[in-house]
Design a protein that fits this description.
Alpha-Beta Plaits, binds magnesium ion, 685 residues, 3 domains, single chain, eight-stranded mixed β-barrel, binds ligand C2E
Length: 685
């Protein structure tokens, strides 16, 4: 169960913190760095492997060099040996061999130097000595060696002693050359080995890095998948929360209420022990006059007011109570405590005014209480509590009424009608017609009474007698009255310059509404109707309550500059003495005295109750009020009323209520007749 608005809010699943994958987190940076390092390691290892291979090529070159040098030596030795043996040797062939040898050696040497040069840098990096002296020896040795061979070849044709001498010298250089080759071979071998080792290490690093990257990636992927799973679950939690909660107040909605109701009633049945935890009870709370506030201040403020209201209601709850929002300005409470005490505390909690845009706004609540939910499902329980709530509204609002079975009579139709009515308001099914009130002496229309009609989608045009009492009972009259007032003022602007006044009916509920003054002021300023062209008709029953309160409201309205009329006078058995306290302009004699009422079949030509009409006219005169007679159906009625001193007549004799266009036509015809009459007067004169 959810004891309060606030605690429930805290349980709301978090949706706002979902992180996208676009922003690199710390782990991604590490992954990137390690990846780069691994790549660098792989690249380095490739370079090192190549270097090692080149060092091996150096070694091979050295081998070649050695072979060639030895070969050259052999050529020379062979020549000398043959010569000394007294055999004739072809100089040309020796020379050719020697030249080929030299070219090969030069090529090999160049190759060696090239490799050596490229290797120097890597050698430095690896810390392997590339001894330039050795290289120099190699170069010199090779050069000398070649020179020596050359010399020997030249000398072969000369004295063998000198050749031997030369070779003796050459021998020495040959030895040096071999030593140099060995030195270079050592360096190259070391370098190749170092390269191979380093390459091995770097490869190990690269492999490690790659493994790390792969591991990290797999880890990351796992985390991503886990987070996606978490997000999905959070999202599902949000969805299921939303399904059971009202988005405005975050209170459980009907569905949430039904779930709790089912659980609690099942537990209550299972234990069979109603005493220990208390019997479950359902309270249906509907705010009185909320719609008016909503329409006056706008939906945003209305929403805020609903939230504030929910907080106040929640403050009355204890552990185990559930507060839900049924919809609109209706709340449900499920409790196992003393329901009457809870209802009383909720009504009391709403009593202090709310502050809306700097204004103090008073709200009350009507509460229906259902104490026995046994055998009922949630829907049936809520319906019964709702019916009790209507009974509370009917009894005067701001109170709690406990459900009893006899309330069920006719209740379903009433609920259907209310649903229809609310929909009708939303869909602008209500319109206004106007009935002229005509001066009995002048024959000129002085004012128009605005009368509401409901253009019902299936029942057709419905008259106010059928829905006004219901609208008053449910409080929906405030909304309806505002619609009529605004529409009437809006349309009447085009008649005000003819001096025609628009009369709008106010129901007793509207008359007691603290926001009435604001509403009237708003309707005037929005339409541009001058206040003296607006008349408000208040029924006799409305003004006969608390006299001082009535006087205060009347004075406030008068201060706006509007006219006031007392409607249906004579039917409310009012204390006539009070009339003198009320600063009203018009007294409307009820049609029951003029044309007669229901079932009263009087002679249609005469006033139904002339004596009363005369008495009322006399009293109105005494209080300096204008007198309007309703229900004027015949010329006799009009004549008699005029004879008795009534000022204005309203009834089918002049016109039935018609729409705005009908009034335009009516006024035009009247003006035409007026002109004709003037012309006739002129002619007569
Ligand atoms: P009401 O204010 O006394 O309005 C006069 C009613 O008498 C109107 O009925 C009108 O059509 C009817 N009527 C006028 N002349 C004659 C006549 O010569 N013969 C007969 N038989 N009837 C005549 P309607 O329009 O059905 O309204 C009935 C009542 O509903 C009104 O009585 C008024 O109390 C209430 N009403 C109408 N519109 C509104 C409204 O916008 N707000 C409120 N609060 N009440 C309204
Ligand atoms: Mg009226
Ligand atoms: Mg009337």
């Amino acid at each position: 169960m959810t004891p309060s608005v606030t605690s429930d809010t805290a349980e709301r699943p978090e949706t706002s913190k979902r992180r996208g994958f676009g922003v690199p987190g710390g782990a991604w940076i590490v992954l990137g760095v390690v990846g780069l390092l691994s790549f660098a390691a792989v690249a380095t290892s490739v370079v090192l492997h190549r270097h090692a291979a080149e060092r091996h090529a150096v070694l091979e070159s050295l081998g070649q060099l050695e072979t060639r040098a030895t070969g050259q030596a052999n050529v020379v030795w062979r020549g000398l040996t043959l010569r000394m043996a007294g055999e004739q040797l072809s100089f040309v062939s020796l020379r050719g061999e020697e030249l080929r040898g030299r070219t090969e050696i030069a090529k090999e040497f160049k190759n060696l130097l090239d490799l050596q040069e490229r290797g120097v840098q890597v050698n430095q990096w690896l810390g392997v000595d590339t001894d330039p002296e050795v290289m120099e020896t190699l170069r010199e040795g090779t050069g000398s060696f070649l020179g020596a061979v050359h010399g020997a070849m030249g000398m072969m044709a000369m004295q063998p002693e000198r050749v031997r001498l030369r070779l003796g010298q050459w021998d020495m250089r040959f030895g040096a050359l071999m030593a140099a080759i060995d030195a270079v071979r050592d360096g190259a071998t070391a370098s190749a080995q170092a390269s191979s080792e380093a390459a091995g290490q770097v490869t190990a690093v690269a492999a490690g890095g790659t493994l790390l990257v792969a591991g990290l990636f797999v880890f990351k992927l796992g985390r991503m998948r886990a987070r996606r799973e978490r997000d999905r679950r959070a999202f599902e939690a949000v969805l299921s929360h939303q399904a059971g909660h009202d988005p405005l107040t975050d209170l459980p909605n009907r569905r949430g209420f039904k779930q709790s109701f089912d659980t609690v009633s099942a537990m209550s049945v299972a234990t069979g022990d109603h005493q220990a935890s208390g019997k479950p009870a359902v309270l249906f709370l509907d705010l009185d006059g909320f719609k008016l506030v909503n329409d006056t201040y706008g939906h945003k403020t209305g929403d805020q007011l609903l939230i504030n209201t929910a907080v106040r209601i929640a403050s009355c709850l204890a552990d185990g109570d559930l507060l839900a929002r049924q919809g609109g300005d209706e709340f449900l409470v499920l409790t196992q405590r003393d329901s009457a005490a809870l209802a009383a505390s909720m009504i009391a909690a709403l009593a202090p005014p709310f502050t809306l845009e700097g204004n103090e706004v008073f709200l009350s609540a009507s509460v229906g209480v259902l104490d026995d939910v046994e055998g009922l499902d949630a829907e049936q329980a809520v319906q019964r509590a709702d019916i009790a709530m209507y009974a509370a509204k009917k009894a005067g609002r701001a109170r709690a009424v406990v459900f009893s079975e006899d309330m069920m009579d006719g209740a379903p139709e009433r609920l259907a009608l209310e649903a229809d009515f609310r929909r009708g308001l939303e869909r602008d099914e209500f319109s206004v017609v106007y009935q002229p009130k005509v001066g009995l002496r002048s024959g000129v229309t002085e004012s128009l009474e605005a009368l509401v009609r409901w253009n019902h989608p299936t029942r057709g045009m419905v008259g106010p007698d059928l829905f006004i009492p219901f609208a008053e009972e449910t409080g929906l009259i405030s909304e309806l009255g505002r619609v009529v007032l605004e529409q009437a003022c809006h349309e009447a602007v085009r008649w005000q310059d003819r001096g025609v006044v628009i009369a709008v009916n106010l129901s007793p509920v509207q008359f007691r509404n603290p926001n009435l003054i604001n509403e009237v002021r708003g309707a005037l300023s929005e339409s541009g109707l001058r206040p003296e062209h607006l008349e408000l008709e208040i029924t006799e029953s409305a003004v006969m309550g608390d006299v001082s309160e009535t006087v205060a409201v009347i004075n406030e309205l008068k201060a706006l500059g509007v006219r006031l009329a007392i409607d249906d006078f004579g039917t409310g058995y009012s204390n006539l003495a009070h009339l003198k306290h009320f600063n009203v302009d018009v007294l409307k004699i009820d049609q029951a005295f003029v044309r007669g009422g229901n079932g009263q079949l009087d002679t249609p030509d005469h006033l139904c109750d002339g004596a009363i009409v005369e008495a009322v006219i006399g009293m109105a005169r005494a209080f300096d009020m204008h007198v309007v007679a309703e229900g004027v159906e015949t010329i006799c009625h009009a004549d008699e009323l005029r004879g008795m001193g009534a000022d204005v007549g309203q009834g089918y004799f002049f016109s039935r209520p018609v729409d705005g266009a009908g009034i335009d036509a009516f006024l035009a015809a009247e003006a035409e007749a007026d002109r004709d009459a003037d012309d006739a007067d002129d002619v007569a004169a």
